[in-house]
């Protein structure tokens, strides 16, 4: 626990905030700095093939301790933190023997982690929590995952009598801005199954994600000086308003759906009289429904064009990622062994769905089945972010068991 907490506090103090549109990869130098620190620590623990590649990704191998062939598994976490809240000058505050009350953050007393908004806190009385001082995020997303992987690797290296196959360790960059796996070469990773450590609480396995497409609707009108516009102007701004008005609002929107329901989410509008663009996220667990949503957009476009034949409306769809369950079905051991490892670690595994995507959705689609495991994250991307050291320690136990379950049951 002490080692794990020390690691976590060391890693969160390095500012690895991802920066949108930075024009570099990784998008911030702190990610390289943390990567360098981890390379040194991995080498000190005794891992082999430890490298920080030209893109800042850190890769290392925990060698097998058994002679029989065991599929290589990968443990994956991301080095960057969300740009939504600053990660500069993070001051982790350790609350030992948590008393079950609201936590007032001293750097900004208006920031209070309330038990009424975080009911899971009530189950953690007496445990060790870590928060910020209220002025930054904590970065448990995903430095909890990084610390858990590092600690599990250290424990396995220190106990060579535990039987396990080869394990690849992989730390990625810029996950929070959608570029976590841009430069991850699966050939080089060389794993049969991956596990991202980037989940909330403990004992959960995210095994389904949304399938996702992006729709870009380009509306072209007819621009002309308003003085002489009568009967001639077609205003793309007004048509964009009309378009939005004709989308479902009381259903199929993020504001009105939960659990397994999908949605269309217009999240950006740009333009002027001559041309306007709407960007709309299409999301559903059931991939074929995305085509229905695209058809709905085309139907709306057609009805508007029937009224304004001089305008033009294009609906362009780009696939983003696919529900992880589709790829996991091809390698059922990925989930079954994670569930078994959790039981052996004393947890009751819970299969959960994510109303979003993970690096694992993309990796699974590319052929590396990669469910996501809990590692003690709470209130992500916020100054109210917190973690629980005992939950992180449980994730370490899960990884140590998982390594052994693969060696024992994969034959
Ligand atoms: Zn994350």
Q: List unreliable stretches of 5+ residues.
A: none
Largest sheet: 11 strands, mixed
Radius of gyration: 24 Å
Mean pLDDT: 97
Count every helix, treating DSSP H or I runs of 4 or more residues as helices.
10
- Gross morphology: globular
Structural class: alpha+beta
CATH class of the largest domain: Alpha Beta
Give the distinct bound molecules: zinc ion
What fraction of residues sit in β-strands? 15-25%
Supply the CATH architecture of the largest domain. Answer: 3-Layer(aba) Sandwich
Q: Spell the H/E element sequence.
A: HHEEEEEEEHEHEEEHEEHEHHEHEEH
Count of discrete structural domains = 2
**Number of DSSP strands?**
17
CATH topology of the largest domain: Aminopeptidase
CATH fourth-tier homologous superfamily of the largest domain: Zn peptidases
In whole angstroms, the N-to-C terminal distance is: 33 Å
**Helix content class:** 25-40%
